[in-house]
């Protein structure tokens, strides 16, 4: 049974694993399941190309972001028999957290430079700049990472993770998500998001779609 919870209690029940807020002790599990799930996402294909250590590179790339979101209390974890099988990490204004040691989160902005050659870093950062143009100008909650293990997809687990996160967004904030999977557009539209634009990330990069969900109150 999926029990989707927010800080105030149960928000929904579906067949499947439990969906709950990730705790600091869940950080390795959240990072690992997201790396597994996103290793072959079109965005990661574009960033890292074909390499034997793709999953490890994706895990390193996600490290600082996932750590911050878990410590901020804005990451949702799907757990089945004590194993993480999915996660959704949000950036919500006013919830930013420092690193686990209380200092600046490392590896920080230099992560790409540790994982990619310099010319590739420039190309990827230019693509990211184009992607940021899809973001709303006003304060908003961003669903930054969503991933479900391949053998658990198609059973409503991704929807449960998204809906739990949306329920936790403050009422006055709109929500936004970017995706490079064309099939995800209809998935998010079914959950109250509307298509807000698309942009190609560099001359050979994937097309990124931006979708927004209005605030529950003005």
TrEMBL record:
Keywords attached to this entry: Transferase
InterPro entries for this protein: Acyl_CoA_acyltransferase, GNAT_dom, Trichothecene_AcTrans
Keyword Transferase applies: yes
GO molecular function terms listed in the Swiss-Prot or TrEMBL record: acyltransferase activity, transferring groups other than amino-acyl groups
Gene3D superfamilies on file: 3.40.630.30
Span of domain N-acetyltransferase: 17-214
Alphabetical list of Pfam families matching this protein: Acetyltransf_1
Keyword Transferase in annotation: yes
Name of the protein this chain belongs to: N-acetyltransferase
Phylogenetic lineage: Bacteria, Bacillati, Actinomycetota, Actinomycetes, Micrococcales
């Amino acid at each position: 049974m999926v029990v989707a919870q927010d800080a105030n209690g149960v928000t929904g029940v579906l067949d499947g694993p439990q969906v709950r807020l990730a705790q600091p002790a869940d950080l390795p599990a959240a990072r690992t399941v997201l790396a597994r799930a996103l290793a072959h996402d079109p965005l990661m294909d574009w960033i890292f190309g074909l390499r034997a250590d793709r999953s490890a590179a994706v895990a390193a790339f996600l490290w600082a972001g996932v750590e911050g979101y878990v410590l901020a209390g804005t990451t949702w974890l799907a757990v089945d028999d004590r194993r993480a099988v999915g996660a959704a990490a949000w950036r919500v204004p006013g919830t930013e957290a420092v690193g686990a040691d209380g200092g600046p989160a490392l590896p920080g902005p230099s992560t790409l430079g540790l994982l990619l050659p310099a010319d590739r870093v420039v190309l990827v950062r230019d693509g990211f700049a184009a992607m940021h143009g899809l973001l709303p100008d006003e304060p908003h909650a961003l669903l930054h990472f969503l991933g479900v293990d391949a053998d658990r997809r198609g059973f409503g687990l991704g929807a449960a993770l998204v809906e739990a996160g949306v329920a936790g967004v403050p009422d006055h904030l709109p929500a936004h998500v970017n995706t490079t999977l064309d099939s995800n557009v209809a998935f998010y539209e079914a959950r109250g998001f509307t298509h807000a634009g698309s942009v190609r990330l560099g001359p050979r990069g994937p097309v990124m779609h931006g979708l927004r969900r209005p605030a529950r109150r003005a």
